[in-house]
Amino acid sequence: MKSSPVLSLGRHLASAWPVSSRREWLVTNGLGGYAAGTVAGANTRRYHGLLIASIKPPTERVLLLASIQLVCCYLGERYELGSNEFADGTISPTGYIHIESFDLQEGIPTWQYAVAGALLQKQIFMMPDGNTTWIGLRLLRGSAPVELELTPLCTYRDYHGHSRGVQPFQVESNADTCTVRAFDGAVPLKLQLEKSRFIQAPDCYWNFLHRAEAERGLDSVEDLFIPGRFEVRLQPMDHVDFSATVESDLGESAGNVVRALTLKARAVVSGLPHTAPPWIQQLAVAADQFIVRRGAADSVGVSIIAGYPWFTDWGRDAMIALPGLTSSLDRHELAAQVLRTFASFVDHGMLPNRFPDQGESPEYNTVDATLWLFHALQCHLDASADLSLGIELLPTLVAIIRAHVDGTRHGIRVDMRDGLLQSGEPGTQLTWMDAKVGDWVVTPRWGKAVEINALWLNALHVTAELARRAGDMSAAHECQALLLHAGTSFSRFWNAEKGCLYDVIDVGGGSQRDDSVRPNQIFAVSLPHCALSPDKSRAIVDTCANTLLTTYGLRSLSPMDGAYAPKYEGDPWHRDGAYHQGTVWSWLLGPFALAHFRVYGDAALAQSYLQPIAHHLLDACIGTVSEIFDGAPPHQARGCFAQAWSVGEVLRAWIELERKMPVRRAAQ
Fold it and tell me: Other C-beta atoms within 10 Å of 208: how many?
């Protein structure tokens, strides 16, 4: 089975604070829980920690173990290997200076610390389907044993919050184990280091700074609780494993978990074309981080986390990301499970926009999530060559089409005068450009939005073809008639003056047209069903390339527009105001590359637009793709450091384009 690639930072990067405190890592458990931090070891976000458990998968995330302070005693010298930043600007300890290297091996973050002649390896990984984090420690070389001290820094809070002032935790310990409970009724945190002894010594550390939160204009200081410390002695080539869990039983050993994770990473990579370069192989490994269980184990569904560290599962993001994360990698049963899960939530012809963090009822405030379901299903049917799921879901698809014709929530309804889909009402934001600051809807897009109608045409085409193949000719004729009407009217989006498509027509239910140059028009060319002539399709691709394209994605608004915001930074008001006003979205690279191939027919050229993501994998969160980037150079990564649709769409586009390469390349 093919090994997945190794991403590596050498000492010149890993031990330099400005670099290693900005580079992040992520491991996940398939429940919505995760562990994340910086290469330097300091937590720079409220969302960093070694165990963020998902109590009600994939939601109700609770941070229990913030970090471990690791000390190595070797030949009479004491080396502090951890790092913290405090509110007064102090960085203490400065353990990052001892980092020899940082690697991502089969998706597992791996550090090597050099202290004198000794070399200590640390790995962090999580138990699949369990709220358990493991830290593996191995002495790779040394002329004498080392004494290790591990001091846990604990809390008990929602992952969106901060803990200030430490409540009296309850601590129980014996031999190599410590159990910490924040309060009666709280989920207990069990800490264990094999071959060690635990010394109970309760204490508090105050005023840890989360620098990234300060940069975002949010509260940024936290206090943490110390229950005591673990002490263990390691001989050269010996290893020990530390565990932090809220589970009643650890289940597998750490060694078995590592082997299972390695095999899983290699299995995912095996679904790629054999020509896939290392960076695409790494994206395939990263794809698995977003697949999660939804609901209790006895009534399990499968969903997709929109992004780490702060998103849960969103309908729109899941449907956009699904093909690249599953179908393109030949993970057909997984794709079918996700599609069934979301189809079960269809209500009044709509898919939920999101599932709230605390398990409240789903929110049905999106027009495009439902339409992306049709595209995700078609990708699954094409990749699997199995029509059974399509036939199973056909009644749901037809019901969705009819609900949109009749009208459903938020003014979503087909205008029977032109067959196009209109949506919106005052104060709403229903498309993916859905930023809202208080009562200010930054990009309202109330009317007939261009990508919504491109998706509508595609949904009608998918349903008509599926109904025909299933023998439901009544539904096939119904959808075909709607498609013909809407397809003819789609020419209303053509903006002859600018040589591209209007972003929204019939704005606010009137006759105005929004001629903002945005990337939404690219879907009219990239989706399988295209209602445009070749020359207009080419003009759209050229407009996006010459006006919106950057190294890492497409800008959400032309830089020549007066509302253009070149950077996504500052407090929530400024950030949300810039979110779709020029900020670069990496997921749009996939549709752009596919649209480029459609009009120019050069798969290698189209694929070249995806190549810069290879360099990004060593920036921001190592091994994955960020949500957004600044519109202005150098296009700094922003937003979620790991985004499902960013990974999924780059993967999907690369794989589709690779399969369109000349046969001679595949044989090389």
Answer: 22
pLDDT < 70 regions, the chain: 1-5, 296-299, 356-359, 663-668
Q: Measure the CA–CA gap between 123 and 24, rounded to whole angstroms.
A: 14
pLDDT at 409 (0 to 100): 95
The answer to whether 248 touches 162, Cβ cutoff 8 Å, is: no
What pLDDT is attached to residue 356? 66
Nearest to 111 by CA among 47, 42, 50, 41: 41
Q: Given this model, what pLDDT does residue 662 score?
A: 83
If residue 321 lies in a helix (H) or strand (E), which one and from where to where? Answer: helix 315-325
pLDDT digits over 615-658, tens only?
999 999 999 999 999 999 999 999 999 999 999 999 999 999 99
Tell me yes or no: is domain 6-262 CATH 2.60.40. Answer: no
- What are the DSSP E strand ranges found in 395-465? 413-415, 420-422, 436-437, 440-441, 448-449
Q: How far apart are CA 139 and CA 512, in angstroms?
A: 69
H, E, C per residue of 17-65: HHHHCCCEEEEECCCCCEEEEECCCCCCCCCCEEEEEEEECCEEEEEEE
Start-to-end CA distance of the chain, whole Å, equals 20
492-516 in b/e burial notation, b at 16+ Cβ within 10 A?
A: ebbbeeeebbbbbbbbeeeeebbbb
What is the CATH code for 271-666?
A: 1.50.10.10
As annotated, the residues of the chain forming the CATH 1.50.10.10 domain(s) are 271-666
